[in-house]
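Subject: complex prediction, re-run

Hi both,

The earlier run crashed halfway through, so I resubmitted it with identical inputs.
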Amino acid sequence: MSSTTKAVTRGQRSTGAILLEFLGSMNLAITLLVALAIASVIGTVLQQNQPYQDYLLKFGPFWHEIFAGMALYDVYSAGWFLVILTFLVVSTSVCVYRHAPSMVRDMRQFRMSVKEKSLRSFQHHVADEVDMAPAAAIDRTSRALSSRGYRVRVKDHGDHQVVSAMKGASNRLGYLFTHVAIVIICVGAVMDGRMPLKLAELTGRLVVETRDIPASQVPPESRLGASNRSFRGTVEIPEGRRANVVFIPMRDGFLVQELPFTVEVRQFRVEHHSTGAPRSFESDLVIYDNDLPEPLEQTIAVNHPLIYKGHAIYQASFGDGGSRLNINIWPLNERGLEPVPFEGNVFQNYPMEVVDRGEWTLELHDFALHNINPFLDEQGQRFNRNFGPSFTFRLRDRTGVAMEYQNYMAPVEQEGRLFYLSGVRESVADEFQYLHIPADPRGSLQRFMTFHAMLQNPAVIAEVARSTTTAAVAEVRGDEEVQEQVRRTMERLMLLFAQGGYDAIAREIESRTPPEQVSQVTEVFIRVLHAGLQALYLEVLAEEGVDEITEADQVFLEDAVVAANAIHFYGSPVFLHLTGFEQIEASGLMITKSPGQGVVYFGSIMLTIGIFLMFYVAHRRCWLWVTPAGEGRSRVVFAGTSNRNMVEFDKEFGVLSAAALGRQPPSDRDGSPQEQPT
Amino acid sequence: MSVPHEAIQIEQPGWFRRLSHLDWAWAALVTAATVFVLAMYGGRMDVYEISVLLIVAPGILWLGWFWRPFQAFSLAVAGLSLLGILSYHGWSLSDPGDLARADTNFFLKFLVSGETATMWMCVLLFGATATYLAPLFRYKDGRPAIQPALIMLAVTGVIGAALVYVGMNNIRMGVQFIAPMFLIVTAAALIGLFARSDFPARVGTALAWSGAVMGLAGLLVRWRETYLHDPTWGYIPVSNLYEVFIQFAVMTTVMYLYYEYRTRSRAMGGFVMMVVSASVCFLLWYVFDREAHLIEPLVPALQSWWMKIHVPANFVGYGGFAIAAMLGVAYLLRARGERVNPDGLLATRLPSREVMDDVMYKVIALGFAFFTIATILGAMWAAEAWGGYWSWDPKETWALIVWLNYAAWLHMRFTKGWRGVPMAWWAIVGLFITTFAFIGVNIFLSGLHSYGTL
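This time it finished cleanly. Structure:
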């Protein structure tokens, strides 16, 4: 071919050829690898697939809009991410397409028509005239080569003979395997990906459901039939209930995926270690399907899914399945001497009429059988304490404002005393603040509730103030005017305390007293208030039939006053005490169908084999060029190449070339003394 | 050449014929041990455990043939761990063994209980690092390299002492655990002042082997200890950060020792062992500050036989990448040394650029191969535990990023023929990416992989 025709063809290269070269170029491949890596980083730094509300709070409306527009909340199924992946697959495919033919040729051809000159230009080559006939030289070299695993070919070119040998041709196969494997893995991933859903959404055949409604009410355009080839959804099924759909979360909503069978959760179990940590989560499942002669029963656990009809059913989570709760409602007012019994189920809402406070809604939210909390003992050793059952609920007033509460069923010991704990918080993002209500000697709420109810009753307070002041002041002086003044102060302080705690008293003092007298007045007022509360408490004890007051009873009063004060921050007109329950658990199942899994695994195995072939098999070639030099002598050139592990090849070439030239091979190991020939 | 041609051995004997008597004894021992295990415990092993055994046993056998020092290493580990396990008693079903013996039994208390052996490993590996580094500062052509040695001694000694002081007096908690990194160099410079040969580096090899033996034996004894705590707890000790750091130290050391054996150069040792020492420092902080060595039962998601192969495979990868990065550092130092001061310590004491470049490629290739396997195994495990082989969980994604990074590195070397300084820099950057994938993800990002939180 002359140089002119070459120039012409280059000038007239088709657009296709240029495109092919661009797509198969290493620069594009590396760029794509880097782009993929950076996109992946974004996806890990920005937490993916959270509720949109959370993002809005975190980034503000401006950035939220931009991030949502760039699909940064779901990077891995974003259009641009899929484009990068597609380009990577195309680039790899083109690379394979362009290089495969030459690779295959390289594996099979022995290059018998090699030129002597090019052999002499090899880095590894030796040349000499040897005291052997060509046939002998060829025989020696061939034996040396084949004993080291080389395939050997000999060709007579008339004036010279060529021995060509190679081994490790599968190294080239490694190239093909790894690159084809990447394509296969990506194809498998696409089979399991959300591309079809995205397309259906784009064409409007599918609409993401964003309302919080039961599966049965979800309209058909948000439902996927059982024929859908690949999906990954979850469903929470209470014990004893069934489901034939799963939910696929999509951005700020979900889709309903129908199943070709029905799953029942017969029982869900959590087993615990002696430390209290969970040891296993298991569900007894029953599969109902018309294709089955009888329902299929199977227990699944974490790491042990059930595979049925190409669907894999996993134990993914657990939660409450609508436990039945028995609750005592203690009104936190003067009627709170007796509780009102109530029964309800978790996840249900109940209207609640509170005297003077209007209509409230009680939203039972969750129930937990165990509350295991870590503690440190005196030696600094970690240990766990189980606080026992608790339930979580929200109380919503008429205006729709709600507080969240978590109440424990049994009193919890703290500093040697027992308290009923109730956590309260305004939003899920806050920590719970705890109200500590002291338990009476019988372990019940009764004494505190009586104390609190009487404190809320003005008639009782007036009576307590009267009898206390009469007794106290009569002892000292008997001045009726002073007595009346003290009585009125005590009554007023107790009423204030009952309505607004210490804060109300402090406000009262501030508004009526000159600043320089505040501390003095406060001291007096607190003493008067506590005397009144003490008297009230004695009333409570008398009613209970306690005649001997112990130190524990005294400590109780202190705790009760603290609690009565804290109730003003509690935000609820009632105190809910869990008295009994019937736990119903729900098992969270993840059900998936991934037809691409086998493809991906096949690609992965291919990738692994390819990598090892590529790294650990060296493609080596050796040539012997022999020309007769007369009188049983010959001129030989021996050369070789290797594309991997040159250190190893240096040694091998030393031995092989010695064999070819009929010399003593160098010692096998460098460093060790060479054996002298005898 | 007067040798008759026929007398020259030109054909290579078959592979098996090249094995020595010792090699065959090794094979017999491994086979006997495998048969013994199957006969004794086969009945209680499930099909996966038997397959793992049947894959691992030939693997160990082959590794011993391929790399003879591994035979002695395995025997030492086996001997020590058996000593530890048997010292706990409990080798019959009627005797469950007693964890309390760790405080009374001599061997357990001072040598091979899980915790003690790990402490031995820490000390030995620190020692190995110091002695490997020492020849850098030794006599040079008969003259002591006093000046650099003294400067290093003073600088690192002062920094190390300051860190210990600041940490111990609670001015800044925890910094005393960084001090060993400096004090090791101080010790190395001190030894170097007196060393007249490369003998300290040979001591380093011995210490590194011993450290690896103690670390692995400690892990194996700890495996038994998990069952002694409570038979239902028992798990392979590659499940939390404490255990995998021991594994990292052992794996990296052993991998380095292999390349030391292949290249016959101990000059890389000081640098590679620095990264091992850094992991030991972290381990010490983790033990003394966080009590990470306490054995606790596994969460249900980790109770899977996949873990037995997924985690170790990953650590061949991490180990390889770590060694490559440290060789990158050594490479850059040597390159700079050659430029600035061709007769200086850096230019003359470090291994040749070719050797470092070659080993860097080899460890990255090995690491990459095993990291690929580990990621695939991880995907298979995820398919069984999380309901999908790929969930774009942060740990998974970072594994992919690490993989892409080294894939690009290898492509550049293979197709563009990149060598030397840029590749050394890239290997160093690679270690930062790997470290983030290894620990950073657990600290900064949440996800399904949240077992190894700090």
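Residues 480-512 of chain A form the longest helix (33 residues).

- K.
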